[in-house]
Design a protein that fits this description.
Layout (H helix, E strand, L loop, with lengths): L1 E4 L2 E3 L5 E6 L15 E5 L2 E2 L1 E10 L2 E10 L7 E9 L2 E13 L10 E4 L2 E4 L3
Parallel strand pairs: 2-9
Antiparallel strand pairs: 1-3, 3-7, 4-5, 4-8, 6-7, 8-9, 10-11
Length: 122
């Protein structure tokens, strides 16, 4: 099983997200370099920034890969995947969401203070 935090970013991409995998066992002990992991979102390769193994009471509990989400031409739910570069059996999927880039529709140059309206235009 894999999960991602945050689960979304704008369609412009570039957001740093952390993909977490549980249950890969001792096989992950060799997966400590970013080049050992392949991460995709919507079938587009992500740049892997770092890979970290987390331990609890001396036993491996999870692998975390920090990646940059690629840009997308569509918004909505997409599928992501994390796979060990040398072992396709070590693979897990996760859901990801792209949202449209926010835009400002209008910016008012007036404000009301103490019952009077003022304008930056004079």
């Amino acid at each position: 099983d894999a999960s991602v935090v945050p689960i979304d970013c704008s369609m412009a991409g570039g957001s740093m997200v952390t993909v977490t995998v549980h249950g890969w066992g001792a096989d992950v002990l060799t997966l400590t370099d970013p080049s050992t992991m392949n991460v995709t979102i919507k079938s587009v390769e992500c740049m892997v920034e770092s890979v970290t193994l987390k331990f609890n009471q001396g036993k491996h509990t999870k692998l975390e890969a920090v990646v940059y989400a690629p840009a997308s031409t569509v918004s909505g739910f997409v599928l992501g995947s994390i796979t060990a570069a040398d072992d396709a059996d070590l693979s897990a999927d996760f859901d990801f969401i792209y949202f449209p880039q926010p835009t400002a529709v209008a910016i008012s140059n007036t404000a009301t203070t103490a019952g009077e309206t003022t304008s930056t235009a004079g």
